[in-house]
Write a structure and sequence with these properties.
Keywords: Decarboxylase, Lyase, Pyridoxal phosphate. By secondary structure, the chain is of the alpha/beta class. The chain has 14 helices and twelve strands. Helix 5 packs antiparallel against helix 12 and helix 7 packs across helix 11.
Length: 461
């Protein structure tokens, strides 16, 4: 069977002639296999991994269609399933249907966002969509952005641009300010930029998990006296463990006074800024120089979907433009590979575009409001006499039994996570300020009040 397929050249690539019947058959079968997996989510649970799962590597002869689909099914059946209503551990919601289609179209196009000539329509689409996002959050006509494969890369693009804008190059005295609750990706960013942890200044947080403004001012003054060169301050719009939002208004005023680049890591909460949903602390983000937004984390855009938006596109051009001598350029069109770290890049923006077009602003708001509603329902009904609750204005809650000692938090959370997964609820256990916590993320659109009630019953048992 495999030999017959291999000898048929039409099996390798889509044909420029005819109907591509074989591809249609394979796509239909793949879609059915995927949908069957979705439909079995309630039975299989959020994380049904079998330790005996076998990864089969390529052999001398190609594999038959039947064997390949058997292996696809095995892969699916041993994967994390985000559509299960008990999948509440991370910022990984069910995939939006039209976003799945966008991934398919992007794969079929196989266009390359490196350059306009390799992706003419998609280049204009990404440029337009980034501009739309930038204007929605209040940036001016000089604004825009670029998509990247994840929030870490978006943050890294921003920080490299910030350092270049400050004229610091590889200056070893360059420093970056983040809150002590900022995402761990900034440690990685610092390393990639040729700096170390001494160049990463962590600012204390208050009892709400927000950056402490007084500590920020004192640390800025201290760094200035030590002749350290501050190239950016990062405000977090949605911390990982509790969904806190730093005081963006006050931080933006400090950045303006001291002429420091303000970057907002809005990977979690930034998407709320394009809506009319009132979120406490979500203001003045249009005063930033750059902001990261990850639509993949809550509205179900399939991975990866991250945007870096900047108030002035020239900062990205001045930072990353090196020239592409092997690529033809078109006047007034910026090759997307010249405004970010990544060169070759798939047309991931299609799944974001299709998802947003399908939802509309009202649909986006419906998804976001429902996540906040589930969080509020959970917080309202969890026993305050039994648990300490850590949460901000977004859809994330971390909690621990009252007065549990740090040394006991590891065992308690691990035991609870194991108990819950046996009952088809998947929660995470982040380590935060010396303790392990249980964390629930209420971004799963399939989770209903009845599921939350059952989760609370299990937690209280």
């Amino acid at each position: 069977m495999a030999e017959d397929l291999i000898n048929n050249k039409d099996i390798y690539f889509p044909s420029n002639l005819g109907t591509n019947d074989k591809l249609i058959t394979l796509l239909n079968r793949a879609c059915q296999t995927l949908c069957d997996w979705f439909s079995k989510a309630d039975k299989n649970g959020p994380l049904p991994f079998d330790e005996s799962f076998n990864c089969i590597m390529p052999e001398d002869d190609g594999t038959s269609e039947e064997d390949l689909f058997s292996e696809i099914e095995s892969l699916l059946n041993n994967s994390f399933n985000p559509v299960h209503p008990g999948s509440l551990a991370h910022l990984d919601p069910p995939p939006l249907i039209f976003s799945i289609l966008g991934d398919l179209i992007a794969a079929g196009l196989n266009n390359n966002l490196l350059a306009y000539e390799l992706s003419p329509s998609v280049t204009l689409l990404e440029e337009s969509l980034c501009k739309w996002f930038a204007k929605k959050i209040g940036f001016n006509d000089f604004s825009g952005g670029i998509a990247a494969s994840g929030g870490t890369l978006s943050n890294l693009n921003a920080l490299i641009a910030a350092r270049n804008n400050a004229g610091l190059g590889t200056n070893p005295n360059s420093v970056l300010f983040v809150s002590e609750d900022a995402h761990s990706s900034f440690v990685k960013c610092i390393r990639v930029m040729g700096l170390d942890t001494r160049n990463l200044v962590r600012i204390k947080t208050d009892n709400q998990g927000r950056m402490d403004i007084n500590d920020l001012r004192n640390s800025l003054d201290k760094c200035s006296k030590e002749n350290k060169k501050i190239f950016a301050i990062v405000a977090t719009l949605g911390t990982t463990v509790r969904g806190a939002i730093d005081p963006i208004k006050e931080i933006s005023e400090i950045c303006k006074q001291r002429n420091i680049w303000l970057h907002i890591d809005g990977s979690i909460g930034g998407i709320f800024a394009i809506t009319s949903i009132p979120i406490q602390g979500l203001n003045n983000i249009n005063q930033a120089n750059s902001i990261t937004i990850n639509p993949q984390k809550i509205i179900g855009i399939t991975k990866t979907s991250s945007l870096l938006l900047v108030s002035n596109m020239s900062t990205l051009e001045n930072t990353f433009n090196t020239g592409l001598p092997y690529i033809s350029s078109k006047e007034n069109i910026i090759n997307r590979g010249e405004i970010g770290i990544q060169g070759s890049r798939p047309a991931e923006v299609i799944k974001l575009w299709l998802g947003l077009r399908f939802l509309g602003i009202k649909g986006i708001e419906n998804i976001l409001r429902s996540s906040i509603k589930r969080k509020d329902f959970f917080v309202k009904n969890i026993s305050k006499n039994k648990f300490d609750i850590y949460s901000g204005p977004l859809h994330i809650v971390s909690f621990l039994p009252n007065k549990l000692k740090p040394k006991d938090s590891d065992a308690w959370t691990q035991t609870k996570v194991n108990e819950l997964i046996k009952n088809n609820f998947m929660l995470s256990r982040p380590k935060f300020k010396g303790k392990y916590f249980l964390r629930v993320v209420m971004g799963n659109y399939n989770t209903k009040d009845s599921h939350i009630e059952e989760l609370l019953r299990l937690l209280d048992a």
